[in-house]
């Protein structure tokens, strides 16, 4: 069974890992948000791509979900001593990825080609694609600080500023990586992982043609909102600031018209009647992934649920 | 006593360290070759500047003379695993310097300003200037491989190709760092450290105005050639390939018209009559610097010798 998963960072990477455990090699394709990508110390950093790849390669830091397991920090610590910015810490091993990616990009390789090569080196059996090889930047329009690029908002400002609007700068001109269309075409299921709708999934959907390519496919969303909160990150805060009460129901509304199945947490079972009124088929299960067993289990439940749609 | 020292990498850094030990804070100015600078993994690397600064800050690797003491290599090792070039290994701490320098250059700061700030962070009492803030590249024109940038020749090709000629690309348009003129003006002595004449000192002299600024100054050269050989690097091989027998005498000839004093090793005492015929005043002493005492001793001897000129 071929599945396409859309993913942002840690939450998305967890479910992608779950699918990778139970599908045949090559049957999982992950399309990853690159709206967070930015330049830091002259290097090209792709936080979500790296989180997904490190997770799939089982080399991610198990405590944070991002970065490399057992990493150390001398390089950036030295740069900080010399006056460099200290708000985005990069481990030594992680830095190796950014160094080689930057070298290859400067040599004219495409991000999707680089990612394919890296996945091969890391022994990843799934296919991982950045949503585009072009530059798309998620920009938060904030009340206090005006426009902030995602990492500036997320890491540097610790999600403090209030969001007024969000834009995906460059999305109108960006082209999806062509293999994405083949993967969607071949898939019997498209899953939006439990990633932030506003800054992880929507940037992917903003790239011309991706939404349309999925229009005839069975699309299932896993809600990243549980009991009105996000397990990690500012998704719930963003809903509030954009005038919407954060809930699994609000997530279902957010993707209305695009999805056919909706997976949400057992803790939100009280929302069942409201969600079922929305013309989508819903399924409730434990969606919190604490360990590898949880990840594979959730992936399995989603596949079984999809077969009922 | 104010001294200006011209230096390339390891040999030059040793003598600069010697002068720094015995002069008052601020009395030593080191003008450093940047013809070897290159981009690697997207980062801007200044091998000679770093070698001189690390030496003056007493944080250089005591075994190699370059790089940082006690450094580790995870970052570049990871990049190499991903397919990156392995011929120029950079330690983690050393990488911190390149990261912050690259960040600042991209933010529009000048290399000389960055170097000044770094020297302050490292507690260096001497003034260190890159020869120019503009791009000058030492290019080796080789028999086997055509034109090679310095690091490509020196590190990647291990100095194997035969030199036909050397050029300093960009030198005709490069402007010296302005403070260099003030430093030379204020100095009572200019010393060419025992660095490679062709690829360490000549690139500095190739920058418009530097030679002229020194024309009325007492200039002393310390020969990097001892008994026909260089302690380190390809200086002797370059003399041979350019049709000149390598010797302290050849070094004196190389700088003819520019220098007034010449310091060479006791092991070459047999060349004394030949060297003294060249219209320069010579001095012979032990020029091999094995430890910090040797460095300070040689610096002291040079200063005493200069007072006799």
What can be said about the biggest beta sheet of chain A?
A: 7 strands, parallel
DSSP strand tally of chain A: 14
Do you know the CATH topology of the domain at 3-38 and 125-135 and 172-306 in chain A?
A: Rossmann fold
Mean pLDDT across the residues of chain A is 96
CATH secondary-structure class of the domain at 3-38 and 125-135 and 172-306 in chain A:
Alpha Beta
CATH superfamily of the domain at 3-38 and 125-135 and 172-306 in chain A: CofD-like domains
Helix amount of chain A, in percent? Answer: 25-40%
Oligomer: homodimer
Which protein chains make the most extensive interface, counting residues with beta carbons within 8 Å of the other chain's beta carbons? Answer: A-B, 36 and 35 residues
Characterize the overall form of chain A.
Answer: globular
The strand order across the widest sheet of chain A is 5-2-1-9-10-13-14
Structure description:
- Chain A is 39% helix and 19% strand.
- Chain A is α/β, with parallel strands linked by helices and 309 residues long.
- The first copy, chain A, has a domain of 182 residues: CofD-like domains (Rossmann fold), CATH 3.40.50.10680.
- Chain A has a 7-stranded parallel beta sheet with strand order 5-2-1-9-10-13-14, sandwiched between helices. In chain A, strands 7-6-8 form a 3-stranded antiparallel beta sheet.
- In chain A, helix 12 links the parallel strand 13 and strand 14.
- In chain A, helix 1 packs parallel to helix 2 and helix 4 packs across helix 5.
- The model of chain A has no long low-confidence stretch (mean pLDDT 96).
- At the A-B interface, helix 3, helix 4 and helix 5 of A face helix 3, helix 4 and helix 5 of B.
